[in-house]
Amino acid sequence: MSSPTPTSELASRPAEDVQAVSALCGTRILEREGIAMFVALHDARPGHHLHVRDAFGVAEGARLAVLFDHYERGLAAEGVDAALSESGAKGEVPSEADPDPDIDPTGAAGLIDVLVVLSDQHLRARTELSP
Amino acid sequence: MSILTTGHQREAFASGAFLRVVNWHNTPQSERATLRAELAWYAERHDPVLPEDLDRLFETGQWGKAKPGFIPVFYDGYLNNATVAAPVCDELGITAWFFPPTGFLSVDPEQQREYADAHHITLVDEERNQPTLAMTWDDLEVISRRHVVAAHTANHAQARHIVTAEDVQREVLEPVRLITEVTGTRPPAFAWLFGTPFDPSSVAGRAVLDAGIRYAVSNTAYQRIAD
Fold it and tell me: What is the ipTM of this complex?
């Protein structure tokens, strides 16, 4: 039996210019547009672990992880470039750990950036009326 | 491993532990056609996910749905969520999740603009001068007949600001109680302003557990926190 096939949006090629997509996502008007997001499912109950047995879900997840890696790499390169140009430091990569909540109240700005770009390219509705 | 890392997120995705959500805030009448077109687009490709669908997945590992699931979510209790978003979802046969901060619904209309500006509830220009900006409790009861109503604090609060027993009562226990009383159903999920994840070691996290919430909703994850 062949493996389930991810939906067409997940099967589509990832964006080559991740930084350009990221810049475009920055122009979205969060307060009036539908913001698509792939989010994780996590069992936080002590002694529990979510084990997905849904074959289609697992197949899609494998593809989603590949796409996630692509966009993470693309944005990490952007982050290194920005850090180099702003600080002049060499070889430093922005850290995800413990951001100041007064600066980043979400606590996960870098991760959210990856998810926003990923979701914009492989989940967001494409209609004639969509911005 | 903290869930707020790319490593955790990737690991979850790779194992199939992921969910599609689409988050809206304002759904003004001026954007009704766009909203309807987009919701129809999602519904053609995905099935709406209900709390019991999440329960099934967490207990059995199986979605049991014909199409990949998605959750359309409407935040912050705007009147336009009641007058536009909910009716559009009803037309399309979609079940959505609504997360109103209960304080917004309880403020007199004359004070809602000031309340919104003071509590990170962004208004769209074309509606800023409307006489009413928040849905009513009656609106929420009507919404609850076909949709999921989840909790989003009373005054649009952040988890890190929940420190005292009074904070817990005001921002967690009372809004959960009010939603339960009005809708007849305890909210299955809870989200904080700015979408921070569940932390069982925090006052905020323990409060959400004590309120009987099953799912902690954050920017990057839906977490099952209780049976």
Answer: 0.96
